[in-house]
C-alpha cells in the first residue's frame, strides 16, 4: 500500500516600514502595521479560513482516513493573535480532530541553523513550546525553514530529540533514487528523513492554474491516477507546499478548492492508497537507505539550494552583520529587543534582496514590499543599524560602548526634557491666544470724547 503525506507551511513575516537613514537613533519602531494587517487579513479571507473550513469538513466526512500536517511559524501565530484570532481558532479546531499533526520549526522562520547550534536549539524549543500550548501536541517531527537540510543540520535536529525531518527530494542529491521512500540521516541514522516529491507537489502549487501547461486542467481524479500509477514498490508520496497555494497563489477561480475537496475521495477510491501524517509514516515504514547531503539544500528555485537567501553580496553582508550581534543577544534580557531580534531573523528579509530570476519568484512577489532588491537591502541595514545602537546601549561590552551608552542615555534624557518644555511652552502660547483683551471703562470713553470734539473745532 502506498501512503500520501500532505504537509502545508504557514508563514507570514512582520514587514518593515520605509526606515530612512535619518530615522536611525531617533525612531525605534520598524514595522509597517497597516501592510502587515492588510496582507494577513487578505490571506485569511482568501486562504486560511476557507481552506481550514474545507479541511475540517473533509476530515469529518472521511472519518479518520484523511489526514494532513502543518507547520505554523511563531511570527505567523503572533499575527493571527493581533489581526485575525478567528484563524487561530480554526487551526485549533483542526487540531481537536486528532487527524492533524503540527510540526516543529524555527520560531522566526529563520536561517539560524546555518550559523549557531545553540541559537537554533533555542528557537526550535520556543516554537515547540508554543505548539504544545496552543494545539496540545508535543512535536516529534521537524521541518526547517524552507525545508533547508544538510547532514549536519539533520544531526543537530536528531540530538534535539526529533524522530524525523522533512526536506526536498532534490534531483542532484538523489540521482537515480526515488523520493518515494523513507530515508535516514547519514551522520545520525536515528533521524528519519521524508523527501518531498517536487514534481507532484509543484503540479498543484505552481502549475495548477497555468492554462499553457500541457496537463491543464488538473482534476483530482487525474492526479489520483498519477499517484496510483507510480511504481508499486514505492511506499510514500510526500506532497509538501505553501498553504497559500489554496486561494492565494492559485486563486479560487482556478478551481483549486474543488480540486482539494474531491482529492481525498479520489485518492481513497484506490484501495492501494491511503493518507498518513509524517509521524505515522515514520512509524509504519522502514528506512531503505541514508540520504547523503553534505551541502545545504532547500525547496526554493530550480537549483534547490540557498541562493534565494544568500546568493549575492548584499544578502551575505546583511546575514553576517545580523548574526555578529548574537554574542550580545545571548546576554540581552530586554523584551522589546528580543522580540525585534526574532522579527529581524525572518528569512523573508533576505529573500527580498535576491537579484536573480527564479521559477517561484512571482509567487513571493505578491507579498514583497520593495520595488528592488537594493531598496530591500538599504532598508534592512538601516533597521539593523538602529537595532545595533539599542543593543549596544542595553548590553555594552567595552568601556567605549559603556561611555557611548551613557552619552546616549544623557541625550535621550535631554531630548525628553526639551520635548516636555516645548509642550509646556505650546500650552502657554495657546492660553495667551485664548485670553480676551481687557475692556475699556465707560468713564474713560466719556473723557476721551470732549477732547476729540475740541480737536475737531480747533481744526475748523
If you had to describe this structure to a student in words, what would you say it looks like?
- This protein is an alpha/beta fold and 460 residues long.
- Helix content is 51%, strand content 10%.
Element order, helices and strands? EHEHHEHEHEHEEHHEHEHEHHHHHHHHH
Distance between the termini: 125 Å
CATH topology of the largest domain: 7-stranded beta/alpha barrel
Provide the residue-averaged pLDDT. 91
Strand content: 5-15%
Largest sheet: 5 strands, parallel
Number of domains: 2
CATH class of the largest domain: Alpha Beta
Relevant terms:
2 domains, 5-stranded parallel sheet, 460 residues, 10% strand, alpha/beta
Question: What is the structure about, briefly put?
Answer:
By secondary structure, this protein is of the alpha/beta class. The chain has 19 helices and ten strands.
Helices, strands, pairings?
Elements: E1 2-10, H1 33-62, E2 68-72, H2 74-83, H3 85-96, E3 100-102, H4 117-135, E4 141-143, H5 151-159, E5 164-168, H6 171-174, E6 182-185, E7 192-196, H7 198-205, H8 220-228, E8 236-242, H9 256-268, E9 273-275, H10 278-284, E10 289-291, H11 307-310, H12 313-323, H13 326-329, H14 335-344, H15 348-351, H16 361-365, H17 373-394, H18 399-434, H19 442-459
Helix pairs in contact: 1-2, 1-3, 1-9, 2-3, 8-9, 12-17, 14-17
Amino acid at each position: 500500500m502506498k501512503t500520501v503525506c500532505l504537509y502545508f507551511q504557514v508563514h507570514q513575516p512582520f514587514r518593515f516600514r520605509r526606515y530612512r537613514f535619518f530615522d536611525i537613533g531617533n525612531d525605534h519602531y520598524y514595522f509597517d502595521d497597516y501592510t502587515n494587517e492588510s496582507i494577513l487579513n487578505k490571506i485569511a479571507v482568501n486562504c486560511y479560513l476557507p481552506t481550514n473550513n474545507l479541511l475540517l469538513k473533509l476530515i469529518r466526512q472521511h472519518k479518520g482516513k484523511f489526514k494532513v500536517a502543518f507547520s505554523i511559524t511563531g511570527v505567523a501565530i503572533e499575527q493571527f493573535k493581533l489581526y485575525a484570532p478567528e484563524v487561530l481558532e480554526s487551526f485549533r479546531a483542526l487540531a481537536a480532530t486528532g487527524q492533524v499533526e503540527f510540526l516543529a520549526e524555527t520560531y522566526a522562520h529563520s536561517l539560524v541553523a546555518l550559523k549557531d547550534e545553540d541559537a537554533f536549539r533555542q528557537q526550535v524549543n520556543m516554537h515547540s513550546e508554543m505548539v504544545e500550548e496552543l494545539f496540545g501536541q508535543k512535536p516529534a517531527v521537524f521541518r526547517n525553514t524552507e525545508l533547508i537540510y544538510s547532514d549536519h543540520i539533520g544531526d543537530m535536529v536528531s540530538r534535539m530529540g526529533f524522530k524525523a525531518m522533512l526536506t526536498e527530494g532534490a534531483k542532484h542529491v538523489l540521482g537515480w533514487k526515488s523520493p518515494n521512500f523513507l530515508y535516514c540521516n547519514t551522520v545520525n541514522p536515528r533521524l528519519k528523513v521524508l523527501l518531498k516529491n517536487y514534481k507532484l507537489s509543484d503540479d498543484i502549487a505552481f502549475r495548477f492554474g497555468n492554462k499553457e501547461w500541457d496537463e491543464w486542467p488538473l482534476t483530482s481524479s487525474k492526479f489520483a491516477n498519477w499517484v496510483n500509477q507510480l511504481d508499486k514498490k514505492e511506499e510514500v508520496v510526500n506532497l509538501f507546499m505553501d498553504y497559500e497555494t489554496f486561494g492565494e497563489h492559485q486563486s479560487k477561480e482556478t478551481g483549486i478548492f474543488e480540486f482539494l475537496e474531491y482529492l481525498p475521495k479520489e485518492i481513497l477510491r484506490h484501495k492501494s492508497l491511503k493518507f498518513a501524517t509524517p509521524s505515522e509514516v515514520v512509524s509504519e515504514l522502514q528506512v531503505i537507505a541514508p540520504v547523503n547531503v553534505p551541502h545545504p539544500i532547500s525547496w526554493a528555485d530550480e537549483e534547490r539550494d540557498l541562493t534565494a537567501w544568500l546568493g549575492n553580496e548584499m544578502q551575505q553582508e546583511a546575514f553576517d552583520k545580523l548574526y555578529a550581534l548574537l554574542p550580545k543577544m545571548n546576554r540581552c534580557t530586554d523584551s522589546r529587543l528580543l522580540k525585534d531580534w526574532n522579527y529581524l531573523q525572518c528569512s523573508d528579509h533576505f529573500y527580498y534582496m535576491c537579484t536573480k530570476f527564479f521559477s517561484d519568484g512571482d509567487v513571493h512577489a505578491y507579498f514583497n514590499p520593495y520595488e528592488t532588491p537594493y531598496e530591500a537591502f538599504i532598508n534592512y541595514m538601516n533597521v539593523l543599524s538602529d537595532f545595533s545602537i539599542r543593543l549596544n546601549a542595553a548590553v555594552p561590552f567595552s568601556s567605549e560602548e559603556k561611555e557611548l551608552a551613557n552619552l546616549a542615555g544623557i541625550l535621550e534624557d535631554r531630548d525628553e526634557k526639551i520635548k516636555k518644555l516645548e509642550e509646556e511652552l505650546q500650552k502657554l502660547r495657546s492660553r495667551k491666544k485664548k485670553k480676551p483683551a481687557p475692556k475699556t471703562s465707560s468713564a474713560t470713553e466719556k473723557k476721551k470724547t470732549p477732547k476729540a470734539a475740541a480737536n475737531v473745532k480747533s481744526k475748523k
